[in-house]
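Appendix C reproduces, verbatim, an entry submitted by the partner laboratory led by Prof. M.T., so that reviewers can inspect both the input and the predicted structure.
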Amino acid sequence: MNKLERQSSFHKIGLFFSQYLRWLSPGIGVKRWFILTLMGTTLIGVGLGIVLLHIYRTAPDTWWLPILSTASLRFLSRPLRALIFVGIGLAMILGGIYGMNRSLMKPFIRPGRKVVDELTQHRKLEKGPKIVAIGGGHGLSTLLRGLKEYTYNITAIVTVADDGGSSGKLRRGFGVLPPGDLRNCLAALSDDEALLSHLFQYRFPDSQTGLDGHSFGNLFITALRDIMGSFEEAVAESGRVLAVKGRVLPSTINEVNLVADVKIPMIETDVRIEGESAIPKSNGRVKRVFLQPESPPAFPEAIKAILNADLIVIGPGSLYTSILPNLLVPDITRAIRGSKALKVYVCNIATQKGETDHYTCGDHIRALEDHIGKEIFDIVVVNRHAHFAVGNKIEWVELEHGLQRQYRIMQERLFDEMNPSRHDSNRLAKFLMELLNNPEKWMTNSTYRL
């Protein structure tokens, strides 16, 4: 064997041992059980050794005694015998534990991934930062898809003011809180490749059955509400069915309606629009939104999550119909102000027709402050637009000059290459985690670009 072949052999042996030694790495919760197993095996070995010693000393000289003597390696020195038996025993224990874990976890391991990799990743995410995301609609779902790759300690707080589509029909027909936004968040926090997640998002086509427009998930949550006895229990049980990595909570469990005062062209006085789904269709500029009844009590678990959070993310999402309905619950806003978490507002990439036409980044911030007061955010995250043509359909939310002198603005390229008007979930989550883990990057800068 030449030098190159010896180096290759040593390298393979090193890889073999390093792969198995990873089971003893800190944080994956294996060493304690391995030590317990080893202690139990040692005690069994001591007991068998006492039995063998008794046989050696008391048994008559029969034909099987030499066989037993040879099997116990009595022809070798005692230290060498001990080393051989300990080595064989450890190899058998490690092999048995590995094989048992592989068999037990095989149904849950993704193809191509090793058991130790899955366990290490699970333990890491289980100990991840506590993050609260507040909003609704597609924006919040996009954010959650990215965040679940960094932590399982995610709480999504969602509005229950929706009155359109499937949610509106169920709300009027069954008196249930609108499940649409909660359903989207549950699906986002589950495995997107899983059949159950796709089933939960399935929407029945137009037909004469009365199910047209309804999604399976909405019907499922509504049915569970009757079975479990409460809406919040139905949402929690739905999360267990989908095996979500985190929690989805309503901002309030009281029935509320969203109302807006809208300035419509050619009409002198503001027009009052009732219903979340009707506001974007008013073709006017929203002046103010509020809940009816006003000041509903917050869901207690949502308050607890906010106060215990390491990071609170508000947005992205529809400004008046997804974000503000949560913040208009007074206890939610008070909890955000009282929390020691890093508080980030993620501004939308593009304006929303009928709701924020021609809005700049500053317009978004001022609209929030007009409703909930100033100095609630530590950072405002703004997308840095790409310099390429994407057609005339997208109206960017622009960062006006001088805004960074009033707020701590963090600007980064966060849009989705396939859909530039929306955030890329991975880019956004990665940027937020960098802000959380590296506070020196934003504490000393009024504007920051990676």
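The mean pLDDT is 82. Additional entries are available on request from the coordinating office.
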